[in-house]
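Hi team,

As requested, here is the filled-out complex form for the adenosine-5'-triphosphate run. I kept the field names the same as last time so the parser does not choke. Let me know if anything looks off before we queue the next batch.

— J.
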Amino acid sequence: MSTILELKDLAAGYSGGRPVVRDLNLAVEQGEILALLGPNGAGKTTMLLTASGLLPSLSGSIEIDGTPVKSGNARAAVRAGLVLVPDDRALFTTLTVEENLRLSRQRKGTTVDKVLSYFPALKERFKVGAGQLSGGEQQMLAIGRALMQDPKVLLIDELSMGLAPVIVEGLLPVLRRVADDTGAAILLVEQHVMLALDLADTAVVVAHGQEVLRGAASDLARSPQRIEQAYLGSAPPLAVS
Ligand SMILES: Nc1ncnc2c1ncn2[C@@H]1O[C@H](COP(=O)(O)OP(=O)(O)OP(=O)(O)O)[C@@H](O)[C@H]1O
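And here is what came back:
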């Protein structure tokens, strides 16, 4: 397995303010799903924006599939194979499902049919405007649009935002199929901790912009009290293996 996304000593924040992410080191392998967890305001979205070049880093480095990517250069990140699904899903709400999918750049082989095989529910909604879809269908479409770009790295911010847990439970296994089929490295920010741990290979908890806990997701799922402590910022910054 090779490392597809590597963040080294990353510090990030907003102009004029103090860093909101500090000393962050993350490596995500081909086909790996890493859950990035942490309380509100911990810096998870800031980290995704920085990794995807939408926000310049304050220091540290970003590598995508071995290629160093200049901080703050979203085009370079996309060229290197990184695709972000933002928490607002960024759909063209006046266009149909089909148009949303076809408008997404297609570089090597992901076809609309392949996307529909991951999300068969979109077949029946193919000619419907994205703005008329349910929240779950919109999330399927947002992920589908990302897949049309053949991502090497897929960053997903708050997949479950506004969705009932039962819908989230249906969506998460698709990410495992995508990681297995395509080898994409997936970095998932998710508030449903146990659902995320159930899916992910590895999990990292951040609090106050710094890593406070890291381990195999299956191990952390058996230690909910450690997760709880980490959310409160009181866990020692030790790896759990
Ligand atoms: N555009 C911005 N300008 C200045 N500060 C910001 C901006 N966006 C976020 N922040 C601050 O950065 C910190 C981290 O926010 P961030 O959204 O990255 O956290 P998060 O872990 O994703 O939280 P949530 O789960 O609530 O989305 C917070 O203190 C927040 O107020």
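Two things worth flagging: The longest helix spans residues 165-182. The CA atoms of residues 219 and 241 lie 7 Å apart.

Thanks,
J.
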